[in-house]
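> forwarded from #structure-qc
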């Protein structure tokens, strides 16, 4: 059996070792996925630098250049729900956020997939992040809050967690 994608998932803190691209290539890997397990800020800072300049951080730009030089594909594995639908929007429109097991709207975890407004915001912000994180594989991974509850509002109650994630 041959796998087309042979890779590793790393967080920016793993990349203190500047030789990651070389080591990955020597190990026969062809893809490195950069992961943001919580907030995307840490990964964004690594890619573009503290000032948010287009030039990026030296370490981030050197990493990406090393991957390009060695024909290593780069993609981004993003647990991004709280960045795609910022929790501070709860005060403006609670209907964008899920109904919990007690029947109350809560900004904790995921969203309400039946909210057109939530989906509009999530879509727009996903495009913004796609412009920042440019995977050379042309695959985008925006994941929900893993293992967390989804919405139990009247429209969502009959949908499984997987179905709700697919709607988003």
């Amino acid at each position: 059996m041959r796998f087309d994608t042979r890779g590793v998932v790393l967080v920016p803190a793993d990349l203190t070792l500047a030789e990651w691209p070389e080591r990955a290539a020597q190990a026969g890997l062809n893809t490195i996925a950069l992961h943001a397990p919580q907030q995307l800020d840490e990964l964004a800072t690594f890619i573009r630098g503290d000032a948010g300049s287009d030039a990026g951080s030296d370490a981030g730009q050197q990493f990406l250049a090393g991957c390009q030089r060695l024909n290593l594909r780069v993609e981004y594995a993003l647990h991004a729900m709280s960045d795609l639908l910022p929790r501070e929007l709860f005060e403006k429109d609670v209907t964008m956020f899920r109904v919990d097991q007690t029947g109350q709207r809560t900004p904790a975890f995921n969203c309400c997939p039946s909210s057109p407004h939530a989906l509009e915001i999530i879509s727009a912000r996903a495009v913004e992040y796609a412009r920042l994180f440019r995977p050379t594989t042309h695959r985008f991974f925006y994941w929900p809050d893993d293992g967390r509850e989804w919405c139990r509002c009247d429209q969502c109650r009959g949908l499984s967690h997987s179905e709700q994630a697919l709607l988003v």
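QC bot note: The helical segments are 20-26, 41-48, 58-69, 81-84, 116-132, 161-167. The first strand starts at residue 7 and ends at 10.
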